[in-house]
Structures are given as C-alpha cells and as structure tokens.
Design brief:
The structure is a single chain. About 1% of the residues have low confidence. The strands form eight sheets. The chain has a nine-stranded antiparallel sheet. Strands 6-5-11-16-15 form a five-stranded antiparallel sheet, with no helix packed on it. It contains 16 helices and 32 strands. Helices cover 31% and strands 26% of the residues. The two termini are 35 Å apart. It is α+β, with helices and mostly antiparallel strands.
Length: 693
C-alpha cells in the first residue's frame, strides 16, 4: 500500500516502535516540516506526532499518556520554512522501515527513510534526490516541545524541556513531565554548518547530499539510571548503515518463523503490517502486549489480558513462540502483586485486573482492585489461565513450576470468591453482566464460559480431575441462557446478544457452541457498512474485529465462502498505510487507529483460514478461503505442540503439502483441503510428511 495526497483511503500517521518507545511519524517522514501551526498543530484523534513512552503511564494512571517532544525536519526554501507539495509514503513491515518521498516548490525532492530499533533509537536518513542548481535550500534537524493532545488538555503538565548544543553534530536535552524526569540526545553523522539551541542546520544543500540523525531518550519512569541507559545507546561509531543492518536482521528473524503469500496484494500487506503491530506493541522487558501507545488507544500504554490473548494467538500460530512465552512470563512476574493485594482482604490465591501498565500493575489503584477482580471482571483472571493454556498447547515447556503455581493460585482465588460448589453442582456467584451494562445477573454467559473453560484448561495442564469436572459443570450451566430460538444470550432473558456468541464460539473451540448462535448474532448486528455489537450502549456502523471473529467461526464450521467474505471485509476502514481502527462510528469516523487487537485478530483469522486442527487426528487446510484466492503459498504455520504445515495451491487445488511433526511421538492424522483433497499421514517424531501432485 502507498500513501499519497491522492490516496482513496484516509491517512493516519505511522507508529515506529520498540514496545518501550514509539515515534509517531506523519506524511513528512518526521513529526512535521516547517513551523506552520495551521499545518501541523491539528490533532489525529487526540494525539499529535511525536515521542511516546510506555512507562510514562505512571504520570497519571487513569489519564492519557502524553507526548514528550516532537523531532522535526526543517526545510528552508528561499530562506523560508517550506511544506511539501506532494508526498509518497510506503511502509515495509518485514523490515519495519518507513520511506517517504517529498516534493517541494521548484522541483526540490527529498527521500526520508526512518525506523525505530529495539534499543529505542529513532534513526532517520535524508537524501536530496533533486535540487535545481540555482535553488537555495537549507535543511535543519530540530527538537520541539510537544503540543497538547486534545484529549489531554485537562491533564497536560507544563513540562520543562531544555535542549543544548553538545557538539557540532549533537544536541542533549532534559525534560520533566509531572514527577518524571528524563534525558536524551539528538546526534547527526556529519557536522552542522550552523546550530541554534534546539536545531542543527545544513546550508545550501545540493543533489546527492545525505545525512542521518539518531534520537533517543530515557527517564525515571523506566530506570533509576537514565544516563546509564542513554550511554548504552551511543550510536556515533555505529552509523546509520550498521544500525539499519542490525534492525532489519531482527525483523527478518521475526518474520522468518513462517511465511504466508496471498494473491491479494492489499490483504498481504495488511497481514504483514498486522504482524508488525503485534510485535511493536510488546514491551521488551515485561513481555506484555499493549492496546497501543497513543492517547486515543484507551489512553495509551494500557495492557489488557483479554485483548492480549488475540495477539498471543497470532504470535503462536506464526511460530513466534519466544514472544508468546515472554507474554506469559509477564503474568508470572506480576502474580505476586495480585496475591499481596488479595491477602490484605483475606482472599486466597492471586488475581489479575486486566487494566494494567506495562509492569502488570492495576492502573486504577489498590482501593478498587478487589471489587474489580471479584465482581466486575473475574473473567480477567481466568483469561490468564487461557494465556497459559494456549502457550502450553504450542509450547509444552512453558508450563514451568512458576507457571503451574500461578494457575493454582488463580483457581484458588476463583474458588474462594467466585465459584461455588455443592456436591456435583457448581455455579458462579451473582456478577456484573459481561455486557458492561453495570447491572447484576445470576448466570453471566461471558464469565461462566471463560471461567468454566479456564477450570477445564487448568485440569488438563495440572492433571487435576476436580478442576476439569467443575469446569464442565459450569459450561453445562450456561444452557439456561439459550433463548427460545436456540441462541446463546449474554444472560437469561437478555434481549440483545451483544456479540457474545462470536467470542463464546472461539472460547469453546475445539468443541464450539452451535454456529446458529453466530449466524443470528451477525444478522442482528448487521449494518449497511458491516457488523455492530447489537447492544444499546454500543452503537457503531462497524467493528473490524467482528469480521475476524466471524471469519474464524465460519472457517472452523467449514464454510469457506462465508469465512472469506468476512476476511476480505476487514479492508473496510483501514488507512492508506494499513492502520485498522477499533470501530467505525455511525458517521464513519474511525475510533482508535493502529488498535493492536484489530490487527492481531486479522493475523489469527488469516492463519486459521489457511490451517487449523480441531481434532488430534485431523488437519484442516484452506477452510477459510475459496477460489478467489486460487494461488496461495504457506510455509511454517504452527498448528499446535506437534504440527507445522506448509502447502501451495494452484488454481484452487493443492499441489504440495508438507506436515512437520514437532513432537517426540508419532502422529497419525488425516489432512483435508476444503474437501477437494484428503489423505492419511503417519509422521514419525521429528520428521516431515510430504504430499505432492
């Protein structure tokens, strides 16, 4: 995909991130060019281009994360600040590099390439592609105090930002934002011709001129030795090419775990850019996967186990097992804090709230923690068991002693506060409805299914028959919430589905609830533009991740035509750079571009369209797409702890299938390609079965 002023799709800036830091870059390849307030002071859904830091959530736990500063590219044409007349911008997700071509007045043309590496260094190279000989052009690298994001006006701290020249090619800066203090530097790879307090300038540049700069920062929200962290990132001797080579090698390793080649170029790009979004949302120290960094994404820098589960599923099926294990380890590390807060109230075990900062700390305060986990969202603690189970099914070695103890502690909490038993019976206490309507219900489908499945999962992982039995009884108890039409409703007597059956189908795989409930839910939520949640408090024209969930449901129900219809519909609402929103308002306004969960679900949906296994003795291929994708190639998708799959189709038919056995035991299965081909396979441990035309 390419972004230009003539793009049919809307434009939204590109986040270049490390999981720890994010630089939001606009169509200039920087935070802005020139200093035109009319051009660059506008807000993009309450967020301005500039630098964001996940750990800065500590400034105000419930308020929006704030911009720290704006790195600008200043272009002086005929001695005046200049704006581009035209731009072309492309993002390469497999290398995580953004390229921008800028055309200015009188034929000046620049190429701007930039990326953020894993060490949180924003690297940028500017090349003068064309500059008429008679034209006077100066280029400047500047650091600007950030504008206030609209959504943060009530919160904005009047921060200190002090920037000073440190050498002929470097500026050092310090900042204060609330109680947080930080420092950073901006360094170029060639001496400036002139400098000001916050800017380095190159005079009279001509065709062929090339210069690079590097920016990074660290502060007291993430380390007690910010300067030491900065010193570890010194880049003067490395240079742009070396940093770029290291950066692209990291991303190559991430993408090489598996490969999907689709005949639809736009869907191919959306798939790859979605894999990019998932990785850049994962914090490198804690392993947690956030909703997104910018203020419009649930105030920025928030981590939620419900949403992160979809990102985990995307990572695992793509073969990014290490990243999935880091995510699970984040919950193991955070478990003691939950245990300590429960102990103060005399409650057993540990619990997780689901609205945390990157360390796993509940952002709404200890005084609200117990009510949140015990009454409002006990399902969130159960979701952590789901995270452990999904990792275990792909990666049995992840079930360490610490992980097993965390699972036991979560079950202890649920049994102490939420789950009641008497003889063979089991039920949940009265809870707030999972539809988030703020009222209490006796049998809440969302909580009961999630907790019931968590009990079953814990029983399997820990070989505990009692856990498994209680889980089965809880799942059976949801039967009272089916209405007279056979549709699973959020609670008994509910008048709207709230989209519940879509998720319940996914949570109960491999033995899902009936597809009829999914059919009715999608029909009742249908709009002219897509699907709504069919709930009075949530009225939108479309939720993109509903398409992903519907596609997965229909793939597993062996309805490839329907699955593909929903899969392709995910293009609706994405931007010219591939940003997907959380939802589209009734007037078409997109809410929450670059929403991690929308992108994660797209990856999961594509992978399950290509391959899945609901039964140990069966592998399903191509159940989520039809002959509209006639020529598809898949390499290295991970199905579970035992299987990987690669295959290629031509004209809608498989011509080669490879099934790898990752386990230590012989696997016997039957593979089926969309009912067009099927074969039995016996695969010894560590070997690969190959079938070809």
């Amino acid at each position: 995909m390419i972004a230009t002023p003539l793009s049919q799709r809307s434009y939204f800036p590109m986040p270049l991130g490390s999981g720890r830091d994010t630089m939001l870059v606009d169509y200039t390849g920087s935070a802005c060019t020139s200093r035109s307030g009319h051009t660059h002071a506008e807000q993009n859904q309450g967020v301005n281009c500039g630098w964001y830091k996940a750990s800065n959530r500590a400034i105000h736990p419930e308020g929006p994360i704030q911009t720290l500063f704006m790195p600008d590219l200043q272009v002086y044409l005929l001695q005046a600040p200049a704006e581009p007349r035209f731009f072309e911008q492309r993002f390469d997700p497999e290398r995580a590099i953004l390229e921008t071509i800028l055309t200015f007045y009188r034929g000046l043309k620049l190429r701007v390439e930039c990326f953020m590496n894993d060490e949180s260094i924003f690297c940028q190279r500017i090349e003068v592609l064309e500059c008429p000989e008679e034209l006077k052009v100066d280029l400047g690298f500047a650091l600007t105090r950030a504008h206030s994001a609209c959504s943060a006006l009530w919160l904005r701290w009047e921060e200190d930002f002090d920037c000073q020249k440190a050498s002929d090619r470097r500026h050092d800066f310090t900042y204060r934002c609330g109680e947080i203090t930080g420092a950073g530097f901006m360094a170029a790879d060639r001496d400036y011709d002139d400098t000001t307090e916050r800017e380095g300038i190159y005079r009279a540049v001509k065709t062929g001129f090339c210069v690079s700069r590097f920016i990074t920062c660290a502060d007291s929200s993430e380390t007690q030795d910010a300067q030491g962290l900065l010193d570890a990132r010194i880049v003067a001797d490395a240079g742009y090419d070396a940093l770029k080579a290291r950066h692209t090698a990291v991303w190559k390793a991430y993408f090489e775990t598996s490969c999907v080649k689709l005949p639809d170029e736009e869907m191919q790009y959306l798939y790859n850019v979605s894999r990019y979004v998932v990785r850049t949302a994962q914090h490198p120290e804690s392993g947690q996967i956030g909703l997104g960094m910018m203020p419009h994404l649930w105030r920025g820098g928030l981590y939620d186990v419900f949403d992160s589960l979809f990102a985990q599923r995307a990572l695992l099926s793509c073969g990014n097992i290490r990243e999935g294990r880091a995510y699970l380890q984040g919950y193991v590390d955070a478990a003691p804090a939950g245990r300590e807060m429960l102990q103060k109230e005399g409650i057993a075990g540990t619990a997780f709230a689901g609205w945390d900062d990157y360390t796993g700390r509940f952002v709404r305060g200890e005084d609200k923690f117990v009510r949140y986990v015990a009454v409002y969202k006990p399902m969130m603690s159960a979701f952590v068991v789901h995270a452990a189970y999904w990792q275990y099914k792909y990666d049995p070695a992840s079930l360490t002693g610490d992980t097993a103890q965390m699972i036991r502690d979560i079950i202890a909490f649920l049994m102490d506060v939420v789950v009641h038993t008497q003889g063979d019976k089991a039920w949940l206490c009265q809870l707030e409805a999972g539809t988030e309507g703020g009222f209490m219900v006796d049998v809440d489908t969302f909580n009961q299914v999630v907790i019931g499945r968590a009990m079953e999962m814990a029983g399997e992982m820990l070989d505990n028959a009692e856990y498994a039995r209680i889980g089965s009884v809880l799942l059976d108890g949801v039967a009272v919430n089916y209405n007279d039409d056979g549709v699973l409703m959020p609670y008994k007597g509910a008048e709207y589905t709230a989209g519940t059956p879509l998720l319940m189908y996914l949570y109960t795989l491999p033995d899902p609830i009936g597809i009829h409930s999914v059919d009715v839910t999608l029909e009742r939520g249908r709009t002219h533009w897509g699907t709504n949640s069919e709930q009075p408090t949530e009225e939108y024209r479309h939720w993109p991740w509903n398409d992903s969930w519907a596609s997965i449901c229909y793939a597993h129900d062996r309805q490839p035509g329907k699955a593909m219809d929903y899969l392709l519909h995910q293009k609706v609402g994405c931007t010219s750079l591939g940003a997907m929103p959380e939802k589209l308002r009734l007037d078409g306004y997109a809410i929450g571009y670059w929403y991690t969960s929308a992108h994660a679900n797209l990856v999961w949906a594509v992978n399950d369209a290509l391959a899945f296994s609901d039964r140990e003795d069966e592998l399903c291929l191509g159940m989520g797409f039809d002959d509209r994708w006639a020529d598809v190639e898949v390499r290295g998708l991970v199905i579970n702890e035992a299987l990987t799959v690669s295959y290629r189709t031509e004209k809608g038919k498989p011509v080669r299938v490879e099934i790898g056995n990752r386990s230590s035991e012989t696997v016997i299965l039957r593979w089926i390609f969309r009912n067009a081909a099927e074969e039995n396979a016996v695969i010894p441990a560590g070997e690969t079965y190959i079938w070809k035309v």
